[in-house]
Amino acid sequence: MITRRELLKAGALSIGVFLLPDGVKILKAQETSLKPTLWASISRDNHLTLLVNKSEMGQGVYTGLAMIVADELDFPWERVRVKPAPAGSVYIDRKMGAQLTGGSTSVRHMYEFLRLLGASMREMLIKAASQEWKLPEQRLSASMGYITDGKRKASYGELWEKAIKLTVPENPRLKDPSEFIYIGKSMSRIDVPEKIDGKAVFGIDVRVKDMLYALVERPPYFGSKVMSYDANQTKKVKGVIDAFPISTGVAVCASSFESALKGREKLRVEWSKSPLEGFDDEKLERYYLDMLKRKGLVARSDGNALKKIEASPKKVEAVYLLPYLYHATMEPMACVADVREDRCVVYAPLQAQTWALKVAKEITGLPEDKIEIHTTYLGGGFGRKSNVEFVREAIEISKKVKRPVKLIYTREDDVKSGWYRPMNATLLKGAIDEKGKVIALYHKIAVPAVFEWAGRPSRIDRAAVEGIENMFYEVPDLHVEFVKVDLPIPVWFWRSVGSSHNAFTLETFIDRLAKMGKRDPVDLRLELLKNHERAQKVIEVAVEKAGWGKKPRYGEAMGIAYHFSFGSHVAEVAEVSLDRKSGQVRVHRVVCAIDLGPMVVHPDLVVSQMESAINMGLSAALKEKVRFSKNGPASTNFDTYSLLTMAEAPQIEVHIVRGEGPMGGVGEPGLPPIAPAVANALLWGYGIEVNSLPMTPDYIKTLLKEA
Predict the structure, then answer these.
(1) How many CA atoms lie within 13 A of 544 on its CB side?
(2) What share of the chain is helix, strand, coil (3-state, %, to 5)?
(3) How far apart are CA 522 and CA 531, in angstroms?
(4) Distant-in-sequence, close-in-space partners of 371: CB < 8 Å, separation ≥ 6
(5) Nearest Cα to 36, choosing from 22, 51, 49, 47?
(6) Can you point out the beta strands (E) in 607-692?
(7) H-helix or E-strand containing 212?
(8) What is the reported pTM?
(9) For the segment 575-593, what is each residue's pLDDT rounded down to a tens digit?
(10) First vs last C-alpha separation in the chain
């Protein structure tokens, strides 16, 4: 974290990069009224400090972004430091319009910016040395933190104060890829040392002077409001300071977390009736399936898919039902807020600084320059920590008690607060011709609108149809339709968003069409992607490395799935075995091929993100589901919301394919193909069709009986 004083001190000797209407510009703070979105400075003792506008939540973004600047600057890696940039309009990602970490955009959005930043700094340092030594710039070179003429050298730190006073070059020379010293290599991670030695500060670690602890009593079911409350017994608990209603429930403040917990147990709250009372798992499923009978909004219509399907003698139809999912971050929500009359300071594990700043301004009425939002390390994000309701709650509570407050969600609070991956129901129809070619596809999905919950409503929710409406498969007649589900169960972005469910339905359905047409599912996909070389290539690499068509190494059956999301093509082959007696599905090995474009900044980060996404997607496929009783969420902790264990994790092989085109994302694209790859292995190896998730033993045993 960096304080405002440190920022202002660094600003005088820093340069930044930002996007203007006529392109990317590098300017010094003194040269423009516009403030740059990303700052860099060099200290006298020759350390490079970057203020990064993206959040480090385990994905390695501090390392990847710092590598880009350090490479163009030609700076020693061990002397690079990274600090999170404060929240503010000057630090937004101009391509997103917000200071936000999500959508697998960090490296691909900042790559050009950061290369220009490093190159500009390098040229300014050379010019400073040229003037000081009275030598032509052509005779000087920059290498590993030093400028030299071959006989003498000066560190960047010695020259920086002079360099920063020079005019910033308009078109600095960028390195040819053959000159890269870091980009393309797997450098040591910047965030690892302090995470190992315990110095890393996560949101739940923050402590400030005179801080109180707070918990919020939340409604038993979504849509309920506080009618009345009795805090008399709560206030008798030693250490409890106060209890009062806020926008989401009733807050309890105390001198310790334990006191707040005991005080909340004594709290008595009368809630209004929830519109969801009586909605258990069974009723929710019926509700979603009924929504499929309604007419939706057409997201894409090529030809007349329904007419062609109805006229075809070879057609398939399937209805899918996928559950609400919990983000299950290692670190639950936590936020420290200190609201005074003239300032507001927030410390939180955030993915969305812009939205947190907006909330702070709204609640406090303070201008932006009186608000400080400090981003800590995140103990996992997966989209959940881009929702800033927990920040809103902490600010509301601190404003009321006029003291700094640390709000903590217990695991039960975190699970029951909602903001789940949406539940959804999908109807798929398809037809093939006599040669087994796919001639028509009809896709209708009933799902809540995630972007509407995020405050960005549109006619058709982009997340609802992503991966389907923009799919690469070439089908002559295609229909994509969206039915919006309106329920007061809060939904949010979950890793890979709509692709997390749409890839499952589409990819399993493709295999059913292949089976009906007696086609190899790999051959069918390659045919559907005949004009998309990059998509074909990842499939070809995945099946070649997996040994497609041969006896599986470990399991009994193989399944494949392909999906394009967040700018990257990914294909995965899963080796699966099934214990018919117990219904237990075991995934032994996953072979993954990803094409994220020609430039890969840090290969090991790509591999680790693919491994992470595959395991998270596999956990959802085999185990995860938020369950509901008539009185609210029945999943409350990890005893009622199961996750994949380390012992159940498969062997994973990741192969990076370098295709031509724009840079793609990494954090999310590895997740969508894994669930359908497993289900497709069960289809071909055991003859069962998986239409619902998770693939629990009980569900699989039911399918085996029906097969």
Answers:
(1) 9
(2) 35, 25, 40
(3) 15
(4) 87, 343, 344, 345, 346, 357, 360, 361, 364
(5) 51
(6) 628-629, 632-633, 651-656
(7) strand 212-217
(8) 0.94
(9) 999 999 999 999 999 999 9
(10) 57
